[in-house]
Each structure stands twice: as C-alpha cells, then as structure tokens.
Amino acid sequence: MSDLPTALNVLFTEFYYWITVVIMFLIHVGFCTYEVGVSRRKNHLTTLLKNTMVIPVVTITFYLFGWWLYSAMVNGWPIGEIAAAPFATPWSELMAAHMGGKPASAGLTEADTALWARLNGVFWAAFLLFSWTTASIVSGSIIERMRSGAFWLVAVMLGSVTWITDAAWGWHPSGWMVRYLGYHDAYASGVVHAIAGGTCLAVLIVLGPRLGKFKADGTPRNIPPQNPWLVCIGLFLIYTGFWGFYAACNIPIYDVQAGDGVFYSATNIYLQPTTLSAITFNFIMALSGGLMAAYLMSKGDPFWTFSGGLAGIIAASAGNDLYHPIQAFLIAAIIVAIIYRMHYWVERRFKIDDAVGAVAVHGYAGFLGVVAAGFALWGYPSSPDALLGHEQPWAVVTPWGQFIGAVIMFWVLGFIPGYVLASILKMFGLLRVPREVELAGLDYHSQASVLEADREIIAVTVEAGRRPAPAE
Amino acid sequence: MTTGNFTDWSGNMLDIGPLYPFVGWEGFMVLLAFIAWIGWHVLQIRAETRQLDDEVRLLRQGGNLEKAVEAESPVERF
Prior knowledge:
Distance between the termini of chain B: 60 Å
CATH superfamily of chain A: Ammonium transporter AmtB like domains
CATH topology of chain A: Ammonium transporter fold
Strand content of chain B: under 5%
Radius of gyration of chain A: 24 Å
Helix content of chain A: 55-70%
Strand order of the largest sheet of chain A: 1-2-3
Largest sheet of chain B: none
Low-confidence stretches of chain B: none
Order of helices and strands of chain B: HH
Distance between the termini of chain A: 78 Å
Oligomer: heterodimer
Order of helices and strands of chain A: HHHHHHHHHEEEHHHHHHHH
Largest sheet of chain A: 3 strands, antiparallel
Number of helices of chain A: 17
Low-confidence stretches of chain A: none
Number of strands of chain A: 3
Strand content of chain A: under 5%
Mean pLDDT of chain A: 93
Shape of chain A: globular
Number of strands of chain B: 0
Structural class of chain A: mainly alpha
CATH class of chain A: Mainly Alpha
Radius of gyration of chain B: 27 Å
Structural class of chain B: mainly alpha
C-alpha cells in the first residue's frame, strides 16, 4: 500500500464490493415485502420473521465454514483433494480487521496478508449476500405451513454448504467443473438459481401442499396474493438488488493480458474479460424479454409479469457477460414462456403447491439458462488458460458440458440434499406446523396475546371511567 | 466448432473485438428484435380486446354494472 496506483487499485476494489453489498440488501427487503404480500394476513408476522432470520443464521454459519468451503472444495473433494484456504478459516487473523504486513500466526505469509487484509471482509460479504439470496429463494414457496426452525436449517444447508460447494466447483477460476466440463455460468443461473430451485422442489414434495390448495379431485385452487401491490413492489426491489448481485459477480479491475504487456479490464469470476457496459445492456434486455413474455403468457397477471422479468434475468445470466443484448432478450423471452407452462404442468401433474412459482422462476429458468449458454457459447474458452498458466487448455463451453453442469446444480446439489434434510425433519415431526395452527394462522400465538392485552386495557379503562372523580 | 469470434484469451486483448457469439449476424438479430417487438404489440392488443369484450358482456348482464359501480369491496363487485 506504499505506492499510490496499487493502493488505489486495492481501495477501489474494496469499495466496489462494499457498495454491491449495500445494494444487495435490497434483495432481502424485496423478499420480505413480496412474501408478506403473498401470504394471508393471519401468517404475515411469521412469514416476515422467517425471512429476516435467514440473515443471522446464514451469516454465522457462513463465517464458521461457508467461506472456507468456497476455496477448499474447488477440486471436488472427496474425489479431489481439499485446497488450503488459511485466510478463510474462522480462527484466521485475516477473518477480522487487519492492516496487512507481517502476519501474527504461522501458516500465513506477507503475500497472503497483502491480498486479503483489505479484501477478505468485502469478498466474504459479497458471497454472504449471495448465500442469503440462495437460501431466501426457498422461503416463498413453503409459506404458511413450514415450521420456521425447519426452514432455517434448510437455509443453513443451502446457504452455507451446498450452494457454496457448487460455487467452488463451477463458479471459481480453479473449479473442477470449469476445467473438465467447460462450465460457464457468469451470473449464477445454475450456481444460485437452479440449485435453489432444486432444493425448493424437494422440500415441497416432502412438505406437501397448503390445506385446501387441491380439491378432492386433484384440481388446484388458486390462492391469490392478498396484497398484489406489495408483491410487485417487493419484486421491483429484488430487481434493484439484483444489479448489485451482477456487479458483485465481476472482478472490477484485473490485468488480463497474458505474457508481456498489460491490459486492465473488468472480468467475470473466471477471470475472463468482460465489461460493466456489456452486463448493463444484457441485464436490462433480459429483464425486458422476461417481462414481455410473461405478460403475454399470463394475460397481464401482475404477479406473473413481475416474476417473469426476474426469470428472464435468471435465464440469460449464465452467458450475460458475453451475449449480444438481443440474444439476451430472446433467450429470456423464450425460456420464460417455457417455464410458465412448466409451473402449471408440474402443479397439476404432481400436485406440487409452490406458492410463488420459485421452482419455475429460479429452478427451471436457471437450468434452461445454463443449457442455453451451452449452445449460444459453444466453443468459447471456459478459462484464460495462458493468463492462469494452465499446462493444457481447459475444456471449452459445450451443450453437453453445460447440461451435465445444470444436472449437478439442480439435482445433485439441489434436489437430493433438500429431499434428505426435509425427510429427516419430517421423521422427527419438525417440518410442518400442526393442522390446527395452519388453519388458525401462524401468527395465532402473537395475535392471541395482543388480543388479551387489548381486552385487559379496555376492561381497565372502562373500570376507571366508572369510578367517581377524586374530590378537589 | 465455435460460435465466437475467438478461440482463446491469449494474444493481444485489442485484437479480440466483439465478445458476443454470431458476429456478423447483427442485422438478422435486429430483424428478430423488431419482429418480437411489433409482434408483442399485436398479440397484446388482440388479447386486451378479447378481455374487454368479455367484461362488457358480463357487465351488461342483469344489474352487474350497477353492482360494480356501487360496491367498494372486490368480493362484492361480483
């Protein structure tokens, strides 16, 4: 930090990630708003708290082991070896305020502290916000019947274990899926959205539908959002926070010129060049394609239109560092039209009650987005081989590599762990609220105590009114 | 087989140029975008017209229009 250009580079990078964290907070404001709008009044407060408490439970577990997993699991342990990550263990001096320079403990070097002293906290936080987001994706579909404690355990699994493992595998410059499959997923269609959708589907299967969702003959009843305005505002806030997500997925400035010479550029997570301008074009065009497709498919239903905008961004995210804006628009529109139909087909065919369409918007859109990138970016290099000093070039992007990657995300790391955990929770009677509570509303206990207090206040006030005024 | 304009990231960065796939097909993509845009308006206007016609038919039945005008609650309007 003793020469100005280096110091500016480090401090700019630190500030860049810090700002993205602030913007990504809006995703969680959006989730809370949106789910309170979808749920019936008798479930509001529990729904709000269910979302809010994702924040601390995922934070503490991400600090304890999630951040370490990202670096340690790149080789696909137990098949590959665990990679060393001394800056990410919870007892590391670099997981706290640090000025750089000579480390206090063995196992770290001055090169470690020079890199991580100012960047570890903001990198950790950017990934943490991705973790909160991944976990929160499940929260909408399971409203009004899942126990909060059970949901928070699913959130820890998804937010601090399975998604971060899939990120180590397929969203890391050294990830084995990038090396051997040519896996390319710049803005996390698969690593965040498909895995969350897969976990969601598994939990929904084990949890079962809301009481009254399906008639005796199996046809679904529509349980509309009780406050559609709040739902749409919530989704709009999620769009806003998603900008921070996109910026945080990039590395703001890096020398990408292999060999002699210097060329600074923004890069994606794989250290391949891209520009903020490119992703700005593509984010907005993908949002537009999704909105337009969903509006037509749903005949102007506000909830589905807004959800479609989000699904459009998710669908194009895998390749949005590279797509032409019109490609992003068309990929978003086509995939959103498909997932809209898939949501209702799965609902009818398998009796899955997904209150907010999360499996479709995140799971199917994410899966199809990863596969679409395999075709659109067929033959693209998955890694800057010369820059990173690879002895052999890594696999290129292919439709089959992307398909295998999407299956790993949605099914292997998403569905299977979700099914196992939900089944264990169900076995111990911890998964679902009792029937009586579901019917009366999850807020019954708090409403009952408020009503009791109200009655007492009224009784005391009325009694006070009956007593004669004290003599003067 | 590659859809891109380049096959690796080595070499001079300034020689890479466009990053997107199917360079040279920009005109065709613009045409597709125009078709999507105008097609969307056509489909939307048709769907909206059908919906409005259905609503008018419903409102002209019995006292539905009076009920809709007088009632505040969405449940009471139907």
